[in-house]
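Build the 3D complex.
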Amino acid sequence: MNDTIRRNRVTRFIGTLNQAQELRLSVEDAREGQLVLCLPYSDQIIGNPETGVIHGGAITTLMDTASGSVILCALDEFELCPTLDLRVDYMRPAEPRKPVFARAETYKITRNIIFTRCEAFQENGETIANCVGTFMRIGQEATPKSYRDLITGGEE
Amino acid sequence: MTDSELLQYTRDTGDFSRMLSSIPYADFIGLECDRFGDDLIFRLPKKEQNLGNPILPAIHGGVIGGFMELSAAIYLMMSQETPRMPRIVDFSLDYLRAGLNRETYAECHLTRQGNRVANVMVTAWQKSRAQPIATARAHFLIEG
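Done.
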């Protein structure tokens, strides 16, 4: 599998997640076991109207999506893996009116569990938040074949 | 209304609509809040835009997280003197069951309140309180 296939799979996958579409998440970079997603700034997701800073919940959704989708960049076959837990540490508020990026990686894959870590940052490179997650492998068969085919497309 | 007037109004009347409409993210996911005596119950009505997994279908895990995070912040603001939105330090979330496409509820408990940091526990459920779909712990910085 090459990076173009990885990018296409992730793009199609997040295309099926209503909330990811609502936030207008997009794929910035995809490679083996690594993924960068972008969350554009929007007035709709402001948490603090005084400062225009976006709410942590939108960052959580960005990081949850990046962590869940990076699994597509690590496994050859598509498996939908539910989140077991997510721990987010907020380093600083995101600067208003700028996009936020999330770089996720899988750092350990076992038969049952996938461990991920993710960093949210902005153009200046400063970390907004760090996140570690665990995802459970329930097997390919747990996901309908039609959905798996939709994500993998006609590539293989 | 200033922020402190808004907070006072919300405390006095139990009407959260004005406070919530001042927070765009609350409207984005559709968060609502009801007061029963001293208890606050946060609600996330069923909303197609909040879905993640399209197969079940289920609410996006990040939305469940955002809902619980914002619930904890509002809960803390209501129990504090300061009208400022508390700053979140960290958030730790366990997903226990799939959050199906239906109304979701959350309630919060102040586990520990220090001078600078508060710890809040949040439980979210759908059909039955006894079967939570997620639990979370959050630390907030309290700015005096």
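Chain B has a mean pLDDT of 93.
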